[in-house]
Design brief:
The chain is mainly α. 41% of the residues lie in helices and 5% in strands. It is globular, with a radius of gyration of 24 Å.
Amino acid sequence: MHARRIALRLLLVPLLAGILVAIVCTLNRRGEAAIPEHPAPFHPTPAQIERGAYLALAGNCAGCHTTRGGMPYAGGRGIATPFGTVYASNLTPDQATGIGGWSADHFWRALHNGRSRDGRLLYPAFPYPSYTLVTREDSDALYAYLHSLPPVQQATRPHELRFPYDTRAALAVWRALFFRAGPQEGMAPEPGKSTQWMRGAYLVRGLGHCAACHSERNAMGATSSGQYELGGGLIPMQNWYAPSLAAAHEAGVADWPQAEVVALLRDGVAPRGSVLGPMAEVVFRSTSRLHAADLDAIAVFLKDLPQSGPAVPQAAQPADPEVMRKGAALYGKHCADCHGETGQGARGAYPALAGNRAVTLDVPANLVKVVLAGGFPPSTAGHPRPYGMPPFTQTLDDADIAAVLTYIRGSWGHAAAPVSALDVLRYRQGEMP
């Protein structure tokens, strides 16, 4: 009887494993059309190429697929993740190392289904969970533009991922759990929403892949509340916090005039805020170059996001008076000349700190990053010579930075939680508290 049970178990294990593999494979093929063995010739028009160039800006494709000082779209940039480094691929039409041998169907499948030309599953550092909403028309225009570029022979560097994240089995399980392709026909109209709102939603949720930064991620690196969630989150490995676009006390713009939302996206500065860090790069490379109609559409969509949370953060426990005194002295010595004795700033030059939502975020990551490494808004047509913040990493130690930030977060009506020297140390070392 005992031997019979063992034999039964030995039979069941491979059977169950086979069933699991079949389920995972099926889930990874859902919503995926077969690629024609002999695709029809693709003859792009000049208008299609021009549109593709614009769409590449809207998606900030060069941001990942161009290394500093490298050839445009030739890939090679490393994208750090909690699981290792993923290297962006060569998007130029080189036959051997780029997408020269790809058909328009292959390119569409990569955007829509996250699968390479040879059928391999792509890692979601390439944001196909958002790009799956891109229409076939726009996919073909992007393909036309990329194939109009000069071919660059540059092989894609192999990814450097830790086990088991470097295995295809792990990627297949991740996709089965967290990815589902969008509708083939693109985003369906939403009841009661205007054409302008739908355009803004398409740019934010699809090409703009804003959720890649502005969403909280779970332990497996997936956006835990769905791909449309814009509730804020830590950007993996960068130690920047992308604030919630759906919270009035973070980065919600429901009460902003539409023109100010457009100004922030176009110029990088607006009366109620400015951009730094990763968002400065997005504005410089992408949103500052969008058409006025598209900027208006994005503003309409963002202003309509349901807002959550209080208008201002809840009061925290008061900081140590000695820390506040130390922070006040440091602020007067290093900060007041630009930001003002009472944090009022200088209009058009240095941002006000008093009443600034960026100062009172629950997560102080961005403040620590700016003091450590400096902060520089993008140079745009509407703001060509922005003033920058110098780095203080060699001037102030961790306790000093913690003190001055605690002072700023607890002064001029602010009531945000203090920052500890341990917080600063962790951010300095690349750890997120």
